[in-house]
Amino acid sequence: MSLLAPVAWAGRAALHLLAGIGRPTIFALQVISHILRPPFYPREFAHALFQVGWFSLPVVGLTALFTGGALALQIYSGGARFNAEVVVPAIVAIGMVRELGPVLGGLMVAARVASSIAAEVGTMKVTEQIDALVTLSTDPIKYLAVPRVLAATLTVPVLVAVGDIIGIAGGWVVGVQRLGFNATTYLVNTVDILEFWDVGSGLVKGAVFGFLVALMGVYHGMNSGRGAQGVGRATKTAVVAASVLIFAANYVLTELFFTS
Amino acid sequence: MIELSGVTKAFGANRVLQRIDLTVPTGTSMVIIGGSGTGKSVLLKCILGLIRPDAGMIRLDGQDVATAEREAFLARFGMLFQGGALFDSLKVWENVAFRLRRGALKRPREEARAIAIEKLRRVGLGPRVADLFPAELSGGMQKRVSLARAICAEPEVIFFDEPTTGLDPIMSGVINALIREIVTEMGATAMTITHDMTSVRAIADHVAMLHGGVIRWTGPVAEMDTTPDPYVQQFIHGRAQGPIESVR
Questions:
Q1: Mean pLDDT of B153-166
Q2: If both were cysteines, with which of A148, A209, A215, B212 could A106 make a disulfide (CB 3.0 to 4.6 Å apart)?
Q3: Where would I find the H helices in A100-145?
Q4: Is the pLDDT of residue A220 over 90?
């Protein structure tokens, strides 16, 4: 019996892992299929657009502003080692639009939105509001998940775009005010170096990150345990899962976009 | 008529329902009594399809509920949840008229609002409540709103899950009276689960006692006090001594 115990443990762990991957994947496919099929809930969608997009703007903007400024200082300091201070505008621009804008924007949205969605939906679960939806002939995936996931998928790229502009502006302010760059030259260098796909790849990343953030929020909320502890655990798991998935997806997308 | 035959449900090793057979004739009010954790809510959720039974069959007017078209099937039901289960983000009238604002029963906004206000009046709430949010209401008012939502689309079958839990005796009496009146007035089939013996006597035509995963006793409410079944006698008189263990 004791000899079989490690095998049983490994089997349970493997099943747990597979269920942990399979269940969210099936849920994601259900959400995607419901996006395409009526009925649609425009009011819930509009509400989610405001909650995810508009109200995330300050936190994404401030994050981008300080990151752009700090990036300019770091590139200037590092570039000085081989007399390459002049690359500051180019590196800040490419770094922001390709990588830091989408990833930091996605993480900020994960912290703000995945937690809020998981807590809201989790509370609905434990207070039987989701059961009530079903008895009122309303599919919870369609009513709760689709508006939030669609809103996040559409608005996070917009947040990333705004974050890119603010981040580059942060770098420009530091470059001009602290590092002695000419204001016009800095902007010209920035515009010259950027290509369409630098910006476009960041926006695509933003859409994927938005999808993952809202999906994790709704999934963990709908599978919340009982009571305050269950909702708290669902909220924490949603944020952690969304953050890890953002990093993993970022690597996969970067491989896909820039190494082929 | 609701018919359950051999309905079985287990959660892991916990066998909550074991071959339950029960019939609720059309237009009657069945109250299911039993201790906490005996599977009363699970039974209602199995009928509604919120939980899938492991075995057995549930029929509504002869049709197997597992094969029924979901939306049409659910449109025949209304349910009052234990905690009200009102949607926090919607106003009271939007909660009451929820079913009337979407799906096959969709009505124009003003018509749905007028029906919601009429149903609120039916449960003793004035029109000024319609534009409040659930969080602004007392527990008793939330129960009434939930009752108004349950009856808004005039369902054929209404389920009441612990309708008086958490209410003071006077408000419990009000809710019991409302349920009895509404069920009689609408001619609906009702199933209620409760521990509250005052509710049982006020609401029930028939009573079934669920214990240990099986229906221990069922019969007309008038026979409940005289049945020799020791489980029923212990439960309805609230005795600590008897076949039902007080520590579970």
A1: 88
A2: A209
A3: 101-109, 115-126, 129-135, 140
A4: yes
Sign of the CA dihedral A57, A63, A67, A70? positive
Torsion of CA B119, B124, B125, B126, to 10 degrees: 90
pLDDT digits (tens, 9 = 90+) for A155-166: 999 999 999 999
Query: How much is the pLDDT for B239?
Result: 82
Name the phi and psi angles at A213, rounded to 5: -60, -50
- Write the secondary structure of chain B as one string of H (helix), E (strand) and C (coil): CEEEEEEEEEECCEEEEEEEEEEECCCCEEEEECCCCCCHHHHHHHHHCCCCCCEEEEEECCEECCCCCHHHHHCCEEEECCCCCCCCCCCHHHHHCHHHHCHHHCCCHHHHHHHHHHHHHHCCCCHHHHHCCHHHCCHHHHHHHHHHHHHCCCCCEEEEECCCCCCCHHHHHHHHHHHHHHHHHHCCEEEEECCCHHHHHHHCCEEEEEECCEEEEEEEHHHCCCCCCHHHHHHHHCCCCCCCCCCC
Instruction: Using the predicted structure, report yes or no on whether residue B152 has a pLDDT greater than 80.
Output: yes
Among A39, A131, A137, select the one facing B85 at the smallest CB separation.
A131
Mean pLDDT for the stretch of residues A33-37: 91
Rounded Cα gap, residues B166 and A126, in angstroms: 17
Which pLDDT does position A79 carry in this prediction?
A: 87
Subunit contact A132:B103, Cβ cutoff 8 A: no
Q: Predicted confidence band at B246 (pLDDT cuts at 50, 70, 90)?
A: low
What pLDDT score does A260 carry? Answer: 64
Task: State the pLDDT confidence band at A127, using cuts at 50, 70 and 90.
Answer: very high
| Residue of B70, B81, B103 lying closest to A132 (CB–CB) | B81
State residue B248's pLDDT score.
Answer: 53
Quick check: A208 and A248 in contact, CB under 8 A?
Answer: no
Query: What is the torsional sign of CA B34, B36, B41, B43?
Result: negative
